[in-house]
Structure formats: structure tokens, C-alpha cells
Amino acid sequence: MTNSGQSEEFNFPALVNGLDFLASAVGSLSGDEGPPGPRDVKYAVLHLQAAVETLLKARLEIHDPRLVWTKVSAFDKRKHEAGDFNSCSVKMALERLHDTVQIESAIDPEEDSLKELGSLRNRIMHFGWRDTVVAVQARTLPVLDLLVGFVNADLLPYVDEPAEAWSAEQQMEQVRTGFKHLADFIELRMQALHSQLAGYELTTAACRSCGQFAVVLDGGAYDLTCLLCGRQYGTGKDAAWEFIGSCEHISITEGGGGLNGCNACGNYAVISTPTAHSTESETWICFACGMMFDDVCEFCDQAADLIGEMGMCSDCYEIRLDNF
Ligand SMILES: [Zn+2]
Ligand SMILES: [Zn+2]
Ligand SMILES: [Zn+2]
Known about the structure:
Distance between the termini: 89 Å
Helix content: 40-55%
Radius of gyration: 24 Å
Bound molecules: zinc ion
Number of domains: 2
Shape: globular
Number of helices: 11
């Protein structure tokens, strides 16, 4: 450390501050500053989480500073300027951006990649942490994608001050370049997995953490794991619940139903999801055994290949015939 910075003043408006965290995170993760080591990714995760919070709140602040407070009605200008208040959570910020500010970006308040980043950050801060560098890079990619889109569509157009707009644009140039490099790197890693994934496209789902088609529904021999980022999903049935963003316990407590049954293996683990084979449309597939189905029988909720236009599986069809 030199003393040269001692008398320097600094002024980071919220947006420039958030982008500074973002540029720092992308710089480390992209490998542009040399291959990231464990310490680099640790700080990258902390900075990325700080970028998420700061940038979302910067947009709330532009719309109405009260929205940054957890309790909007308690807003006090002087305390606000002193930073002496509880600010809202990421989830709440997204809900307000969506409902009140009506931003352009379609970011789901329940977005998995943001939740995953939050828990990664908590593990680093409070519990200690084991992971691989590539896993962290892969999991942060969808968050960067969201943030870059959000800044482009919902923040940059609202910056009035020319000097601030200029520095924001400079920082975003850096971020876009780093993001592109990281995306290319992940693409390369996916190519390296080619031999493990080739031939399984029909039964490979996209990981909820890293967004890559790297979760092979292997027929129930092993617990399901993402081959790219290492995210573990447990049994096929656990994974199916996780993929629909719920769990059996919650669904039953809230009076919801179970998942659809599989008439091949008998597990209630059938959901519809895109696969590596058809990424744009959904396929009914059993997460326990990897069996694919045309549809779900409207009468018995079993996944099955249905008969004719009746929306009925062959079992239900036979029962009906017997009753005639
Ligand atoms: Zn993954
Ligand atoms: Zn099955
Ligand atoms: Zn049926």
C-alpha cells in the first residue's frame, strides 16, 4: 500500500458503485485477469451479491427512495441519506421492481440463480465452503446474464447526469467483454463434457443452478448431479420436486397434490421440462427412471401414451370398456 490515495476523495453514486462491484466480479470470474484461484472466486461471489443488491436498489431509488426501505411508511429523508435504515431484501426489491416500478426485464422474484447466489454467499460468510472454481463460474453465469440485461434495459436509460452516464457506459463495456469471455469458457467446458452427454440428449435436463443441460436422468442408479457445476439433487423424485420449485412436504401441507405417476417404474416423479434434445419445448419425463411420455392421463394422473383424442391411458380405457 502506498500513501498516495490517502487524500483522494471518492464518490460512488449507487449505480456506479453497483457496476463497480459487478465489474470486479466479472473480471475475476472471466479469467481475463488470469485463471481465477479460490480466493478470487470467493471475493467474486461476495462482489456479485453486492452488485445484485446495489443495482436493484439503485433502480428503486430512481423511482422512489422510499421503496428501498423495508418499511416504506417509516421513510425518513435524513436517516435515508445517512444510510441509517433497514433496506429491503433482494426478493422484496424484485417484487417492487416488478409490481410498482414495472421494469422491462422479466426477472422472477423466485429466480433460482439469485437464490443460489444468495446461499453461496451465506455459506462463504458463515459456514465455510467447498466447491470447484468452474462450479462457481457456471452458477454465476445466469446471474450475470440477468444483471447485464437489467442494467441495459432498466438502468442505463434512466441515468440523467452525463458524467455518471459516461462512467456507467465505460464500466458496462468492461462487464460485457468479461461476460462474453466467461460464457465462451463455460461453452468450452460443456464441449469437454460432450463424451459424457452425447447420446443422452432426450433425457438430459437443464441444471437449476447453472442453467446448462448437464443433468442426466440416468434411470435411478445414482442420485442426480449436474455434470458441469456439481449441484446435487438427490433421488429422481427429490429432483423432480426441486425442478418444479417445491417439495412434497410443502405441497401436501398447502393442500396441493403430488407429482404425476410413472407407469413404467411406479414413482410419482413425472414432470414436464425442456431437454437437451428439445430445448424450446417441454417433454413429460420421469425423473426416477428417465422414461418419456406423450402426456398425462386426465383420469388417473398417470403419465402415459394416451389413446386417441380421449386424453385417457390404456388402463383407464380398459376399465371403462369393462364397465360397459
Ligand atoms: Zn449445474
Ligand atoms: Zn419412472
Ligand atoms: Zn389413466
